[in-house]
Amino acid sequence: MARYEHIAGELRDAIVRGDYQIGAQLPTEAELASRFNAARGTVRQAVAVLVSEGLVGTRQGARRIVLGSERSQSFAELHSFAQWARSVGHRAGGLVLDSRRRPSTSSEAVRLAITPGEEVLAVLRLRRLDGEPVLVERTVYASWIAPAVEKLDPACESVTQELYETVGLVFAYGEHLIDAVAAGAEDARLLGVRRGSPLLRQRRTTTSQEGRPVECSDDRYRAGSVTFSIRNSTTANSLVRRAGD
Amino acid sequence: MARYEHIAGELRDAIVRGDYQIGAQLPTEAELASRFNAARGTVRQAVAVLVSEGLVGTRQGARRIVLGSERSQSFAELHSFAQWARSVGHRAGGLVLDSRRRPSTSSEAVRLAITPGEEVLAVLRLRRLDGEPVLVERTVYASWIAPAVEKLDPACESVTQELYETVGLVFAYGEHLIDAVAAGAEDARLLGVRRGSPLLRQRRTTTSQEGRPVECSDDRYRAGSVTFSIRNSTTANSLVRRAGD
DNA sequence: TAGAGCAACTTGTACAAACAAGCGAGACCT
DNA sequence: AGGTCTCGCTTGTTTGTACAAGTTGCTCTA
Predict the structure, then answer these.
(1) pLDDT 10s digits, B157-166
(2) What domain of life is recorded for the organism (chains A, B) (predicted)?
(3) Do A227 and B242 touch (CB under 8 A)?
């Protein structure tokens, strides 16, 4: 583990533990440098991690302040429903309800960077949190990964982890579009809600380390079951608002 | 403007312009350094900006690749409905429907870091995009900023900009919780949708440069009018998923 | 007493150098 | 032909230095 990662971890722990209250000032770079016996540049790198996580605010000339105290999730925890559930102390379940190959639509082709009509694997999964159905996942996999997906256990808990262990595939980058939609007939039946009731929709595209698109998915959460959280600032911004359609 | 910001801008422009296609490789650090006549560290800082924006993917040993080509928004554009609307080529409207002082609830007190019961200013605004009502904003302001807010024109387009010009207040940090809810009676009436229809809810808290909470708000978008977008990766993560309630 | 201005402190930017670590392609071997 | 190995390339980490720029509190003055 890199030096700056270690320092960032120590500081993050201290903040989460409450050693530094929200609104409190962090020690100066010079003090942190001497405390951890590192160069100032290394300390800056460590603090930059916390700033990008939204835990710490910084502006030139003034001491850094603590903005939040919640541990942020790793990419894996965010991407994998099962890993996320485990990390927040819940039990995830899952079941494949349908899995079939078909030609890709034009919008899928764009998102997966393939030619329209090229074969893809469409999978419908129902996900449970502590037994309760909370999420309908409609995922489309590029054809080159389809065979590995088809070999998975239909009740497989973590697809991400399984794909890593069987074929060494790691998901590295993701794009997420978040909006609200009304439950369709199938959504309503699977989630046990009325048709037209609100669902939180997350459309995502995931790519491998090399930047090759692996899957795109339309995930619909039952209202109240899940919330997305983002911290941003003038110096670190990742949330973007877009007009519909 | 800093050297690294200039380099980041040049590279971003080149990507947005299409000089580097999605999936293509970026020049090496050494080449960029010589091209811009800068030290390698400066180039790294520039590229780090693009990585944090999700435009570029990077991993040790391999050349960097282009992941996306969309311009990301500034914090101001994200925070201010009016500035965002302008930047994406739409016209924003707004009207204050109600504005009154009242004691804060306990949850508001936590979010604004004040003592429960301390007076706050609650404002109800309806926002339009190109004439269409798309957003109901229920904002609570801390008492120290309330006088300035009360002096604003009820039809004021950009509250953010007005507060900056009148009292020099700048919003610097924000936390956002995003989920889906059913429209209540008031929401439905104002937005012109049926009761119970899906709305995208964004609860946000904004703080000043010094980390002092200024306002917290419950914003509800008509379904289909707005989408939030985030890019993340194993190395840059800001989106967090949370269990409901 | 209120405001201007200074001085110490703190973070931001830039450069240079050296080594570590991962990737990829071509050479080599079986 | 197919797999392995090595070597050069590229990005990642760390240290050190110097100066720029913004903040904050104190002092001095009107």
Answers:
(1) 999 989 988 8
(2) Bacteria
(3) yes
Protein-proximal nucleotides of chain C (any atom < 7 Å from a CB): 9-18, 20-24
Closest chain B residue by Cα to residue A241: B228
Sign of CA dihedral A103, A219, B194, A132: positive
CB A52, CB A11: distance < 8 Å: no
Closest partner CB to A65 (pick from B211, B221, B232): B211
- Residue that has been written with the tokens 């930059």 in this structure: A48
Closest-CA distance of chain B to residue A151, Å:
26
The CATH number linked to A154 is: 3.40.1410.10
Do A87 and A126 have their domain in common? yes
CA of A234: which chain B residue's CA is closest? Answer: B75
Taking only the tens place, the pLDDT of each residue in A28-60 is: 999 999 999 999 999 999 999 999 999 999 999
Report the phi/psi class of residue B92: left, alpha or beta, with left for phi > 0 and alpha for psi in -120 to 50.
beta
| B136 CB-near residues (< 8 Å, 6+ apart) | B124, B125, B126, B127, B186, B187, B190, B191, B219, B220
Structural domain boundaries, residue A125? 75-222
Read off the CATH number of the domain in which A12 is found.
1.10.10.10
Alpha helices in A104-217 (DSSP H): 106-112, 146-150, 159-167, 185-191
| Set of chain B residues whose Cβ sits within 8 Å of the Cβ of A227 | 177-179, 241-244
Q: In angstroms, rounded to a whole number, what is the distance separating the alpha carbons of residues B177 and A233?
A: 15
Q: What is the structure's pLDDT at A242?
A: 81
Whether A109 shows a pLDDT value over 80: the answer reads: yes
How confident is the model over A128-149, as pLDDT tens digits? Answer: 999 999 999 999 999 999 999 9
Tell me A70's DSSP state. Answer: P
Comparing alpha-carbon positions, the chain A residue that sits nearest to B170 is A234
